[in-house]
C-alpha cells in the first residue's frame, strides 16, 4: 500500500517540488480513518469510507377516500413543506395525480387521486421517513401504507 501511495504522490507533486531535498520531499503516510499523502506542497485525502450513495425514487401516494376537503384545507402547509424539501434537493419533482382530466385549471374542478414525487434518498426507508412528516400524512390525506415507491433511473429531463 505504501508503494502505491508513494506512486500517487509522485504523480501529483510537480517535478520542481521533487527536486528540493530528500528530507523536504519525503512523503509522510498516515493511516487512520483517512489515508493521507502529504508533501511540502500538496495533500491528497482518500477516504476509506465514502458518503452514502443516493438514488432517485419515484413515489406515488394515493389519497384516502373522502379527503378532498382536508387536502384543500392543509394544502398551503403542504406547499410550505415541499418548498423546503425542494430547496435541500431532496424533492426533484412533485404534483397531484388526478382521477380524470379536469374541465379547467381551477382546483375545484380537480378530482385528486393522490400525489407523485421524485425523491433523492439513500434508501426506500429514507423516502418513507421524509414523506411521513408531510402534513398530508399527518392530517390523514395520504394513505402512506399504500404508497408505491420505486428506485428510478431517469433517462432524460426537459427543463
From TrEMBL:
This is YCII-related domain-containing protein. Residues 57-142 form the YCII-related domain. Pfam families: YCII. It comes from Cytospora chrysosperma. The lineage of its organism: Eukaryota, Fungi, Dikarya, Ascomycota, Pezizomycotina. It comes from the Eukaryota.
Amino acid at each position: 500500500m505504501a508503494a502505491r501511495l508513494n506512486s500517487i504522490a509522485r504523480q501529483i507533486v510537480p517535478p520542481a517540488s521533487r527536486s528540493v531535498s530528500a528530507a523536504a520531499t519525503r512523503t509522510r503516510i498516515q493511516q487512520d480513518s483517512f489515508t493521507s499523502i502529504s508533501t511540502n506542497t500538496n495533500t491528497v485525502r482518500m477516504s476509506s469510507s465514502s458518503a452514502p450513495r443516493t438514488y432517485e425514487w419515484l413515489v406515488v401516494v394515493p389519497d384516502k377516500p373522502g379527503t378532498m376537503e382536508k387536502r384543500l384545507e392543509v394544502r398551503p402547509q403542504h406547499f410550505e413543506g415541499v418548498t423546503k424539501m425542494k430547496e435541500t434537493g431532496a424533492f426533484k419533482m412533485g404534483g397531484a395525480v388526478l382521477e380524470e382530466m379536469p374541465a379547467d385549471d381551477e382546483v375545484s374542478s380537480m378530482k385528486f387521486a393522490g400525489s407523485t414525487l421524485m425523491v433523492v434518498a439513500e434508501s426506500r426507508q429514507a423516502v418513507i421517513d421524509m414523506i411521513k412528516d408531510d402534513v398530508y400524512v399527518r392530517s390523514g390525506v395520504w394513505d402512506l401504507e399504500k404508497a408505491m415507491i420505486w428506485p428510478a433511473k431517469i433517462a432524460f429531463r426537459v427543463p
